[in-house]
Amino acid sequence: MSLTHTICTWRERLSRLPYSLIALLGRFSIAAVFWRSGQTKVDNFSLDVISGEFSLGWPSLNDSAVFLFREEYRLPFISPELGALLAATAEHVFPLLLVLGLASRISALALLGMTLVIQVLVYPGAWPLHGVWATVLLLLAARGPGVVSLDHWLTGKVCD
């Protein structure tokens, strides 16, 4: 068997991977990144389905989140308190929507916006990591969540 034949065989096999499986993996993976970050910003509410740990109280913004926004992140045009609150909210709402596959494209674009803010204003040296996040989010925004999603169930093939 020649090298060319082997390469073509593997390319053919890989091309049969269903997009919906790739999208599902991408949705869960990128949602976990943002969810975990959001969890560090709140007290009285924790939910980790992988470890089975949970505490389902009314969430409140913790002091360390505000401290980070005041001392390390230092976003322009927004108070540290508001920045921490908006980030914690977004890091819980949009990942949940992505996991459900509901408003997936909008959620992906919102998290892409957060990624761009983090990259440009907070951690400009972390572009390799943020590039991976952006790639997954752009794929989901461009191609949608796949068939294993509420978006697909609600809209059918009209918007896929």
From TrEMBL:
<feature type="transmembrane region" description="Helical">
    <location>
        <begin position="82"/>
        <end position="102"/>
    </location>
</feature>
<feature type="transmembrane region" description="Helical">
    <location>
        <begin position="109"/>
        <end position="126"/>
    </location>
</feature>
<keyword id="KW-1133">Transmembrane helix</keyword>
<keyword id="KW-1003">Cell membrane</keyword>
<dbReference type="InterPro" id="IPR051907">
    <property type="entry name" value="DoxX-like_oxidoreductase"/>
</dbReference>
<comment type="similarity">
    <text>Belongs to the DoxX family.</text>
</comment>
<keyword id="KW-0472">Membrane</keyword>
<dbReference type="GO" id="GO:0005886">
    <property type="term" value="C:plasma membrane"/>
</dbReference>
<dbReference type="InterPro" id="IPR032808">
    <property type="entry name" value="DoxX"/>
</dbReference>
<dbReference type="Pfam" id="PF07681">
    <property type="entry name" value="DoxX"/>
</dbReference>
<keyword id="KW-0812">Transmembrane</keyword>
<feature type="transmembrane region" description="Helical">
    <location>
        <begin position="17"/>
        <end position="35"/>
    </location>
</feature>
<protein>
    <submittedName>
        <fullName>Oxidoreductase</fullName>
    </submittedName>
</protein>
